[in-house]
Amino acid sequence: MAEVTISTGGEQTGSGSGSVTTAVAPLSITTDTISIQDAAADGSTKGAASFNPNDFNSSSGNISIDYTNGQAASGSNKGFLTSADWTAFNNKVSSQWTTSGSDIYYNTGNVSVGTSSPFTSPGFNSVTINGTSGGILATKVNGVDALRFRSISSESGFLEPRNVPMIFYTNAIDRLVIGNNGNIGIGDFYTTTINSKMSIKGNLSIGSSYSLTAAPTNGAIIEGLVGIGVSSPSVALHVLKTTEQLRLAYNSSNYFSTTVGSSGIVTLDAVGSSASFVFSDSVSTPNLIASNKGIDTTAGDSATINAMAGRFRKDATGETFTLTNSFITANSIILLTWATTGITGGTKTVVVADSGSATITFEDPTTGLAAAPSANTDINFIVIN
Question: 98 near 105, Cβ under 8 Å?
Fold first, then answer.
């Protein structure tokens, strides 16, 4: 420790004065100034300071050592800051950021990290993050990595490293939810597990003209074509499947089924405890039921009827009728019935020999008819498979 010897050439208390006569290194005395030549500023770096009676506060007993009597800081030396240094420091630290309690804020410009050129747009304030590989705006929850917005050279997006859903709100209501299972829900799914890749709580409008039209509650409206099992639908509803294609149901036990087979045969099936077909209006089936298919009265004429059931007229003897339909097979049975005024009605059963058609003749009385129909007789027929 430095030793200082002070003479008794005056009163040493109160406002009196004394003089320093000798000093031991590292102190030195020049007139009324004491200098510290090698004071340790931080334990390793040496500094220098000097003080005189003006630096002594007789009330507090403190000696002031600052940049005026000590070593001033510079680019190469540690030391005291001048008033100009403090002004520059304060301008760097506090001129843009304002402290409010434990908060700080800045509302007069843009902020950038990693670049001196933040994004600017008139009327907007921005935060710009720049990096050689990209920029990330990250959050943490109680020290755990949470949602981040990341932008790199090949992509931009949100990244949630935790196993939690991502929720988008408007008016404090969740509108879009990406579940932690990757499924997407539109609507209020905050407390609900989304079990499909896309779920919608509400209605749906599809199409440029329909997009602004409100669909029915929990329903959908579609402007264009819909394909089920087919990537290029050609009609409003195009269903492609090798088995049952359409089912209209009251419940799981009572329904109407439609199936198109590989050869084009259509099967209409009513399924239920009392299944049947009931038509509330008249039915026109030109290719299924033939009505009054007649031939002129010239003997020996023939006609082809493409139907499953109906009526045709026998106008003269020697006529031949051929029934053709894709439903007629080698095992089909055709039942014929007729009644003529004054003649006993008759029936005839024809077993089809060739699939696809059946030829019926009436010129031979030995064909098995109960009574051969005469000219101008209406004959009813039905094909039974």
Answer: yes
How many Å apart are CA 5 and CA 183, to the nearest integer?
87
Report how far residue 377's alpha carbon sits from residue 313's, in angstroms, rounded to the nearest whole number.
6
Q: Report whether 26 contacts 38 (CB < 8 A).
A: yes
Backbone dihedral angles phi then psi of residue 147, each to the nearest 5 degrees: -60, 140
pTM: 0.52
Beta bridge partners of 262: none
pLDDT digits (tens, 9 = 90+) for 46-93: 556 666 667 666 677 666 655 555 666 676 766 666 777 777 776 665
- How far from the centroid of its chain's Cα atoms is residue 164's Cα? 16
Taking alpha carbons only, the member of 195, 223, 375 closest to residue 297 is: 375
**What are the residue ranges spanned by the domains of the chain?**
4-83, 165-223, 225-278, 289-384
Neighbouring C-alpha atoms within 13 Å toward the C-beta of 238: 12
Residues in the chain: 385
Q: What's the rounded Cα separation, in Å, for the pair 135 and 128?
A: 8
DSSP 51-66: E-GGGB-TTT--B--S
pLDDT in tens, 4-23: 443 333 333 334 445 555 66
Quickly list H helices, 95-230.
none
Residues 6 or more apart whose CB falls under 8 angstroms from that of 78 comprise: 41, 42, 45, 47, 71
C-alpha distances in angstroms, 355 versus 261, 285, 384, 385?
17, 22, 13, 11
Give yes or no for a cis peptide into 26 (omega within 30° of 0): yes
Strand order through the sheet with 46-51? 27-30, 33-40, 46-51
Place of tokens 């038509």: 279
Q: Say if strands 20-23 and 27-30 run parallel, antiparallel, or are unpaired.
A: unpaired
233-to-227, 266, 321, 347 alpha-carbon distances in Å? 5, 20, 41, 48
